[in-house]
Structure to design on (257 residues):
């Protein structure tokens, strides 16, 4: 019996240890993955500063600039050129009178962007031209003739070509014959060029006159195909007499021919 006592004591200790282990396992909850019910609450991200917002993000409420609505590569229409006084240069009536380098006199009359010109030496040479004067550029043509030039301030210059011959020219505004205020407004400009009427030309007689700023005239009358110096026109009737025949002239108006 004494031999069994240590054995019983050992068995009793083993049973006690097993009971304690079982109770400890039941007391600890099993480890599980967090679910929606037992997951830790989410932490909200801190609000972004306005300075952190992407600068390149599009803004819906921004209105397009009307100037940017033009198609790429398409230039806006040209605005009418104006003088410092606010007058449309293309519509101003203006006369330009000067000389070619060969000594001939040139007169250019401009109205509404259209122009007529007459060149003569008062003896045998004369040329009639018509065309445009826009944005300071002179472009006129005539029979076997072409005249081009440019206007800068109160001076016009360029070149006239007749056949194979060419001459440079310079001209200035014919402002001495009218009041300065009228010249700026384009009103009251006296005609600088006169030509025989259609009725006279149908009779085989032609004639042209340039009214110079000093009150004198220079011109040519073509009689039966032969050019001769033109007698001055009577300012009261715009007429003169050649070989006993009365020749009536009229002002040359740009665009009328």
């Amino acid at each position: 019996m004494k031999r069994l006592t240590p054995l019983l004591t050992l068995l009793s200790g083993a049973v006690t240890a097993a009971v304690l282990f079982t109770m400890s396992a039941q007391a600890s909850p099993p480890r599980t993955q967090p679910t929606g019910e037992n997951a830790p609450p989410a932490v909200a991200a801190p609000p972004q500063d306005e300075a952190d917002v992407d600068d390149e993000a599009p803004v819906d409420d921004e209105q397009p600039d009307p100037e940017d609505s033009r198609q790429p590569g398409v230039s806006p229409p040209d605005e009418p050129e104006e003088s410092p006084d606010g007058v449309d240069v293309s519509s101003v009536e203006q006369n330009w009178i000067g000389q070619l380098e060969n000594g001939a006199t040139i007169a250019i009359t401009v109205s509404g962007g259209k122009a007529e010109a007459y060149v003569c030496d008062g003896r045998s040479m004369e040329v009639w031209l018509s065309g445009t004067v826009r944005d300071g550029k002179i472009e006129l043509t005539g029979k076997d003739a072409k005249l081009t030039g440019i206007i800068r301030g109160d001076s016009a210059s360029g070149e006239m070509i007749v056949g194979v011959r060419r001459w440079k020219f310079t001209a200035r505004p014919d402002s001495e014959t009218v009041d300065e205020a009228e010249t700026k407004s384009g009103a009251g400009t006296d005609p600088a060029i006169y030509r025989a009427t259609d009725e006279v030309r149908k009779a085989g007689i032609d004639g042209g006159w340039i009214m110079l700023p000093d009150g004198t005239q220079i011109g040519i009358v073509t009689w039966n195909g032969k050019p001769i110096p033109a007698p001055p026109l009577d300012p009261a009737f715009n007429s003169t007499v050649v070989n006993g025949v009365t020749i009536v002239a009229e002002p040359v108006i740009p665009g009328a021919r």
The radius of gyration is 51 Å.
